[in-house]
Amino acid sequence: MKTAALGTVVVVACLAAGLFALRLRPAANVRTSWNPKAAAAYLDQREGWWMNWPVAARGQGTFCVSCHTAVPYALSQPALRIALAAPVPSVNETKLIDNVTKRVRLWQEVEPYYSFKPTESRGTEAVLNALILASHDAQDGKLSADTRTAFDIMWALQQTTGGNKGAWSWLRFDEAPWEAYDSQYYGASLAAVAVGSAPENYRSDPNIQYNLGLLQDYLSREYAAQSTINRVVLLWASAKLPGLLAPEQQKRIINEALSKQQIDGGWCLSSLVGPWKRADGTALVTDSDGYATGLITFALLQAGVSRDNIHVQQGLSWLVRNQSAWGGQWSSYSLNRRRLNPFSYVPRFMDDAATAYAVLALSQAETKSGNLATR
To answer: Quick check: bond before 118 cis, omega within 30?
Structure first.
């Protein structure tokens, strides 16, 4: 009986080990390349639609930039230009940069994004403007006068007293993951990405050290209360801004993110945001999605996790396998309501962000190894 029981234990243990190895082994007989041309076409079409959508229109012939479409689009374009050997920015990227620049120059004249939320609108826009322009300037290594102005505006709106000292007022519409009750931390992390991305060693400018210290104190003070997805954005920021996190803090975030990886190699957004219910009462999706997988894989690579790490390999493999063959995009889903018509324009917002961060992750992997195939 003891021998039989021992045999059973051994068999079970072997099966468990085999299943674990199977989970971590890159899947066979699947696509091994991604299509940057199709991804670029999808993102460009979506940004063109957004810029001309009447709902996005704002004063002085401008449009608002959005965390779901415009910001990810702007961040992904340099990587796509490299992947496609494109010599100059696309027409829509140029229009986006011109739009942000115009609003920075006319800051005292243009109305806030939402007149009924002026303080939140100004704080949110100030951070996003600085992020977009700093990322654009990073391509040629020169910080423009307009980007300096955008940073000056951003710092001027930073909160210097109260419980949110060091952060910015942030738009809240009870919409996760970017306009929820905890999105102020997300915004502050993006401000850190902006500072760390700015060329000419802007982060060492003596004139910003007090404000930068306030930002670092806020991010450290509120760190423990954050959701996993917010901490992942902080991990990305720490890669751009050395010293923002101690090495052991980075390691904790990395391990936390890895522990959330699903058996198919992807990540599920609804498992990363903490307690959350959709406004329409429908159940949250629990499948892996492009936004969570793209953002986490990108942040891990940015933070120095090896391209050869098995978890990173699995994330990249998931991204390669899940690019749409017909549209070029990666899919995600709304945390706020069930998508009723996947072919209408508005429900694609999450796909916009998913596609941009998938592009960033795959491009970063190619930069590190040079052996991830494209089509």
So the answer is: no
Provide the phi-psi class of 156: left if phi over 0, else alpha when psi is between -120 and 50, else beta: alpha
Question: In the numeric block, which tokens belong to residue 177?
Answer: 């993951």
Give the 3-state secondary structure of residue 201: coil
State the average pLDDT over residues 180-198. Answer: 97
DSSP E strands, the chain:
33-34, 57-58, 62-63, 373-374
**For 205-230, how does the pLDDT look when each residue is reduced to its tens digit (9 = 90+)?**
999 999 999 999 999 999 999 999 99
How does pLDDT run across 120-158, given as a tens digit for each residue? 999 999 999 999 999 999 999 999 999 999 999 999 999
Cα 106 → chain centroid: 28
Q: Report the C-alpha gap between 182 and 233 in whole angstroms.
A: 13
Nearest to 105 by CA among 136, 129, 131: 129
Contact 258, 324 (CB under 8 A): no
DSSP strands (E only) in 24-80? 33-34, 57-58, 62-63
3-state secondary structure of 195: helix
- The confidence band for 343, taking pLDDT boundaries of 50, 70 and 90, is low
